[in-house]
Amino acid sequence: MKKEELLSKFGFSFSKGGAHSSRTIMLEDLDLLFDAVADPAASKDEYFSSIINDNCLKKRSVRTRQLTARHLADLYALDPSIALFRVLRFFWQRDKGGRPLIALLCAYARDSILSSSTPFILNFSEGNIIRREALEEFIDDKESDRFSKATLKSVAQNINSSFTKSGHLTGKVKKIRTKAIPTPGAAAYALLLGYLSGLRGESLFNSEYTRLLDCPSHRTIELAEIASQKGWIVFKRIGNVMELLFPSLLTTQEMDWIREQN
Hints:
The protein is mostly helical and 262 residues long. It has helices spanning 3-10, 27-36, 44-52, 62-76, 83-94, 99-110, 112-122, 132-142, 149-165, 184-196, 208-211, 217-229, 252-261, and strands spanning 129-130, 169-170, 175-177, 234-238, 241-245. The chain has 13 helices and 5 strands. The strands form 2 sheets. Strands 1-3-2 form a 3-stranded antiparallel sheet. A hairpin with a 2-residue loop joins strand 4 (234-238) and strand 5. The longest helix has 17 residues, at 149-165. The mean pLDDT is 95.
C-alpha cells in the first residue's frame, strides 16, 4: 500500500481544494454540531441529517445547510470509522481547553490550502503584525494563478480567521502574532498525527503537527506525560529514548495498517 493511500485511510486528505476557499475552521459550528449529536459513534448520515433536516446550526436556507455540512465533512470527515475524526471527538470530550488546537490540527491534515499557508503564520515571531496582503502574496506564489484576486483575498482572510480561532493570532482587523495555548489533549492528538504519518520516537516531538502547538519540544514532552497519566496515550521515556503508543485510540484494523507501514 502506498503511503498516501494508507494515510487517506486514516483520514488525511491530499485533494487540491479545501474548505478555506470559502470557510474557516468553523469552530463554532463544530461545537454546536457535537452538542446536537451527542453520540460519538453517530454515523456521517446522522451528522448530515442534524445539520440539514434538524437545522442544528441555525442556518437560514437549505442550501446553506447543505454547504455547511459539506465543508464540515471536508475539514473533519464526520465519520467515526475515520481515525482522525474519531480521535478528534475523543479529545473534544475530554479536553475542552484544547478544542481550538485540536480542530486546527485535524483541518491542517485535511485542507491543503490551510496546510500550505501555515508556514507563513508560524514563521512570524510573537508580537509581529500579519498583513493580509503579504499572506495573499505567499499563497499566490505557491499557487500561481489558481485564485482570482477576490478569492485570494477571501482565502487569506479565512486563514487569518482560523489562526485567530486557534490562538495563533489576535485582533479583528489588525492581526498580531500571539502564542497558542497547548493542552495535553492537543499535544496527544498532534503526536498521533505524526505517528500515523510514520514518525517514531523523538522525531514525533519535532513534527509539522507538534509545531502547530506553538511550544518547545520539552513542553510537548511534559504535555505527553500528562496525557499518558490520564490514560489517553502510552508514553515511555528513558533519557532521549522515547516510545509512544495509542492503544485506546486506534482500532485493530488501524494497527494492522501501521504494522504494514512499518
